[in-house]
Known about the structure:
By secondary structure, this protein is an alpha+beta fold. 41% of the residues lie in helices and 20% in strands. It folds into five domains: 26-238, tricorn interacting facor f3 domain (Immunoglobulin-like); 239-351, Neutral Protease, domain 2, CATH 1.10.390; 354-363 and 382-509, Neutral Protease, domain 2, CATH 1.10.390.10; 514-628 and 635-651, Sandwich (Immunoglobulin-like); 815-910. The longest helix is centred in the last third of the chain and has 30 residues, at 891-920. The termini are far apart. The model is unreliable at 1-20 and 471-491 (pLDDT under 50). Residues 44-231 form the Aminopeptidase N-like N-terminal domain.
Amino acid sequence: SLLSLVFVSLVGSQPADDAGVLSNLATSDLSFPWSRLRLPRYIVPLHYHLLLHPDLTSLSFQGSVQIQIDVQNNTNWVVLHSKGLKVLQATVLDQDRAHLSEQALPVLHNPSHEQIGIFSPRVLTSGHKYFLYIEFRGELSEGFSGFYRSTYRTRTGEVRILASTHFEPTTARMAFPCFDEPSFKANFSVRIRRTSEHISLSNMPVANTVEVQNGLFEDQFEASVKMSTYLVAFIVCDFKSVTAKTSSGVQVSVYASAEKWLQTTYALEVAVKMMDFYEKYFDIPYPLPKQDLVAIPDFQSGAMENWGLTTYRETSLLVDPHTSCVSDKVWVTMVIGHELAHQWFGNLVTMEWWNDIWLNEGFAKYMEFISVEATYPDLRIDEYLLETCFAAFGYDSLNSSRPICSPAETPTQIEQMFDTISYEKGACVLHMLRHFLTDEVFQSGIVRYLRKFSYRNTHNQDLWDSLSNTCSEEDFMRAEYCYSGKQAFRNNYLPSGDHLHLAAMMNTWTLQKGIPLVTVTRRGPYLLLRQDRFLTTERPTDPLCFLWHIPLTYRTDTSGTIHRHLMTAPTDSIYVGEAVDWVKVNTDMTGYYLVHYEDDGWEKMAKVLSENHTALSYKDRTHLIHNAFQLVTAGHLKLNKALDLIGYLRSETHTVPLLKGLGYLELFYRIIEKRNETVLTNKLGLYILRFFRAVIDQQTWTDSGSVSERRLRSEVLSLACHLNDPPCVQRARRNFNDWLLSNYTLNLPTDVAETVYSVGAKDDHGWTSLLHVYNVSFSAAQKGQILFALTCSTDPNKLHRLLELGLEGKVIRSQDLSSLVLMVARNPQGPHLAWNFVKKNWDALVQKLQLGSGSIRNIIIGTTRQFSSPEDLANVQMFFESIKEQALQLRATQLALDNMQKNIRWYETNIETLRTWLDQQKKEIT
């Protein structure tokens, strides 16, 4: 092996005794034996025995780990991960726990690869097992990764400290030396030392607690199942919990600080329902005896799926009955559904390497919709799936997009894999696949996949094999397969007797970037089809050809049947018959592609919508609106045609298409209001208010109605007040004054509270009052509403003060800094203020939030997304050039440039069309 050769070259001249033990070897005689980022495969961890003692006073920890290892090649070296830890001692023991060396072993460090190498003078023999024992210490991290500290304030003002972990993707190595790659699955036996006023939590239940000295206790947890290091978790805190059991007897507990304990009730109900649903859907019992859900006060992402100990940002787990709006409740339900789906898909079966992280995240994202639809049908979660796919379309239509499966080696590259492509695009491709295969086949294939690969690691191909396997249950239980690698799955897209190689189809969606545009042309009884890559940016200079296997669906005016056709060539045709007047392609938007209707196709669609919009489902109507405006951005359709298309919205009663059409008009408004186009801004604002007058006037300032109605209320009234609609502003101001007079005790209707606060924040007294309540509130939901409102101030000094508070991290926590920057950038006064803040404080932001994190990505893309002028583009390019070394490591920098170029093109191409169109609508705005 490579390491054996390295070892010989380094120490071959050193004297050895009869047992092959080297002597008189100094650390200075050794050099680090491994040059690659990924660990060598010649040593495999089997079982970790981990002891940790965090000190919440000194904010440090010390510990030891004993790792049982299986040696598969003769070697003198053990190479594993460690980052920021001080290794105090290392030794190797044989299977009988006898020391192989009388002295502590040399430990070499390679900080750039976050690895340590431990040298054993005695050769570790292939086929034998050993124990690697390491003592270490470290500091509780100030950020959000590894073993880090978090704080919260009690009602008496006391600041309490807790210690929690977040290891995904590559920071378990910050808490203990380990083989920190997903394929190195092992069992973990954890012991945590704590004081009497604290509790400790880990993946498994506590098996035993002993007092080790006065006031210091050691919780000894049951041994875990085999799992990857990134799923290990432990917490030391003083939280309270609520507990219930699933129908199969799994204990479910939700933990939060004592002040927020009463906000845990809804999460407990959801978690129990979800666990019951997933055990039935996956047809595999949950393999652990308990599932804890913990609200962590400082948490960078939304949540984390640690096996048996899922951790959450407070806004992702806690629901305050007095301040949480319906959208907060939907969000909490979806996040819990996501993390509990991971307990099977991701934890039980794990991707081999981070290039396939979509197997975890895309699936869990999609299972949010399946699980919530089954357990909480009143939330109408299907109405949110379209927006998930629209978000993916926006990212994927840029030239700087990436394939779902992309190379990732460094921690920064790996961190960036947790993006819109892995989550949203992954979910939408799975949605398309589920409709392609049918629900039953999709579910049975997933069950087959999870059973076959339990406690193992997989690649894309393993999923496709499981989904296309046509074995009977009996064959499956014998672990047999009844198809060859080239055989395929029969489905109703293909003529009888034809077969499809599923992997070949799905590789076109996972191994190449981008989204297809299907152009439809009517020629007599035929539809002529052409597929191209859809781009909203300039055409790429590279000569790559993109071709997808597209499962097309369509409906016509002559039949309610959903027709299916698999398009595998650049061009194709479908016979629909002479009698057909219109054809709507991509029925209910189950497919991940856009559609352009050439010739008079869009006029036909507009006519259908204006004459009888209910002939199409609400999903089809929403899909048409989205496609039309995306085609405008890409230069395939004139803006006035898309605007004419949404003229039918006066008759629309469904929330989703209404919000989609309104959303595009709001988008245009926000673009031009930031360009100081005062006259045009006023015209468009007045048009929106007049056109949607009936919808605005129908809204009540209450929390009544269905989830859809309440969602519409929040969005419509928020925009109306932003457009300075007098009735809206007056009502909001009256509610805000009532709230002030009650000394902040009045419970505002939750669906309009954010709008009320936003209007109230426009004057000095209201803004100051809101900042005070923000500082003392114990409701994460209310704090989120108030923070948004504070960023609606028209005073640049106030906006700048908020940004400084966010950077300081005391009043506004660092976890909320990226959201705060985006909120300020969204303010008409804020784009340049926010961008200049990012430039000035770039180093501090990277230090707080980590270079490859989603927070930095959101800051880069979110602030620059507001720009639509060549001057702004040049400004941003100049800054990226000044941080070139970091910028080259980030995909977000190119995405930001692409977005700005798209905005510039849109503005230059469409602003005069918009001006002319509005002038033609005078009857609407008089």
